Amino acid sequence: MASAQAMQNVRAAALVERDLAILRRFIHVYCARHHHSPRGTLCAECSALLSYARGRLASCPYDPKPKCRHCQTHCYKPEMRARIRVVMRYSGMYYVKRGRLDWLLKYFLSGG
Ligand SMILES: [Zn+2]
Fold it and tell me: What is the DSSP string of the chain?
């Protein structure tokens, strides 16, 4: 029988996966338009950014994990934080302009 703690861990892992999936999509959009990477690939700089973000998410000390943008702890180092903000802003607008607000809203309005 799964303990409450184990269930909590599963939920936390699912949230991390969801955050990562969004992040990956955003970074891909940004990279394709700014660095002209072929579809489905990332340049070295952007894949470094993605693995940095993955590392930060995986080592989040909070349980349950808050959404990163609501978090009190700024765990990104300033340079990475600046880069991720540029990516999020650009790609957020990209999806808004294409009317893809449906899944963005679903993500941003959901709990967790
Ligand atoms: Zn790139």
Answer: ---HHHHHHHHHHHHHHHHHHHHHHHHHHHHHHHT-PPTT---HHHHHHHHHHHHHHHT---SSPPPGGG-S---S-HHHHHHHHHHHHHHHHHHHHTTTHHHHHHHHHS--
What's the whole-model pTM score?
Answer: 0.78
Ligand 1 centroid distance, CA of 36 (Å): 7
How many angstroms separate the alpha carbon of residue 49 from the centre of ligand 1?
9
Determine phi and psi for 26, rounding to 5 degrees.
-65, -45
Give residue 46 CA to ligand 1 midpoint distance, Å: 4
Q: Which is nearest to 15 in space by CA: 70, 67, 71?
A: 67
Q: Residue 104 and residue 85: Cα distance in Å, rounded?
A: 16
Q: What is the pLDDT of residue 112?
A: 44
pLDDT in tens, 2-58: 688 888 778 777 877 888 888 999 999 999 999 999 989 999 999 999 999 999 888
